[in-house]
Amino acid sequence: MEEDPRLQVFKREWFENKDCLDIGCNQGLVTITIAKKFFCRSIVGIDIDKGLIDDAKCNLRNTVRKKQSQDILARGSFPEGLNSGALYERNVSQSSNEEILYTQCYPSHPREHDLLQRVSFHCENFVENMNVCPQKFHAILCLSVTKWIHLNWGDSGLLALFSKIWRLLKPGGVLLLESQPWESYKRYRRLSEAIRTNYSNIHLHPDQFRDILLDKVGFRSADTITDNLSGTVAGFDRPIIAFKK
Question: pLDDT grade, residue 230 (50/70/90)?
C-alpha cells in the first residue's frame, strides 16, 4: 500500500497530527498506511462488513508485529530475558466484544510503538447508525464507497452520507471523495430486490455529486487532486476530489 498512487497524491497537511475517519475501510490497508506515512494523531476505520473489520484488526496487529521483528533483526539480538516467543503479550480489552490486542514488549520508534493506540477499526453502518465516533474529524476518507451506499439506500441514503460527513467534519476539514462512475452501477443492479428497486429510482448520478456537496451540503471548495492514477489497480483509477468545509 505504500506504493498506492492514491496515497502518493494525498497531502501530509491533511493528516499529520489530525483526527481522521475512513468510511468503508475494507481490510484497513489504506487506513493503516495513512497512520504510518502521515503520522495522524488518530484514525478510525469503519465498515459494515464484520469479516472485513476482523481482517483489518489482524492486519494492524501484523503490521506492528512486522515492525517489531525488523527492529530486533536490525539490533541483532533480543533484549535480556526476552525471546521470540515472548515479543507480544496478549491483553483483553474492556470493550464489549472483548477484542484481543497485542502490546509490544520491545521499544521501537514512538510513532510505530503507538500504532495500536492511534488506529482503531469498528463494524458500523454509517448511513443508519454511527455510535463509535461522537468526536469530529479533520479529514474523512470516502474511497470507492458511494456506489454501494447508493445501491443499498438509494438517493436518500447518499444524501444522508453526505450530510453526516459534513456534521462530523471540523471547520476547515477535508473530505476525500472517490466515487464510482454511473456505468459501474449497472453490473450490480440485480444483487437483491432492494438494490434492483433502488437502481430504478436513482435520480442523482455521480457527475452531480460535486454540485450537491458544494451547493446543497455546504462545502466551500472542491479540488480534483487527480483525474487519472496510472499504475492503480484496475477499476480504481478514478478521480479523487478534495472538498473543504
Answer: low
Does the predicted model carry a pTM greater than 0.85?
no
Structural domain span for residue 159: 5-70+109-244
- Is there a domain that residue 208 lies in? yes
Provide the H-helix boundaries in the chain.
5-8, 29-38, 50-75, 110-113, 115-118, 146-168, 193-201, 209-211
pLDDT at residue 226, as a whole number: 78
| CATH number where 28 lies | 3.40.50.150
Grid cell, residue 174, equals 477535508
End-to-end CA distance of the chain: 28
Q: Tell me if 79 is assigned to some domain.
A: no
Partner residues linked to 89 by β-bridges: 103
Whether residue 114 lies inside any domain: the answer is yes
Q: What share of the chain is helix, strand, coil (3-state, %, to 5)?
A: 40, 25, 35
Q: Please name the amino acid found at residue 17.
A: N
Closest CA to 40 of 68, 14, 64: 14
Q: Beta strands 19-23 and 42-47: pairing type?
A: parallel
- For the chain, what is the domain count? 1
Q: Are 102 and 85 in contact (CB under 8 A)?
A: no
**Is 10 part of any domain?**
yes
The one-letter amino acid at 163: S
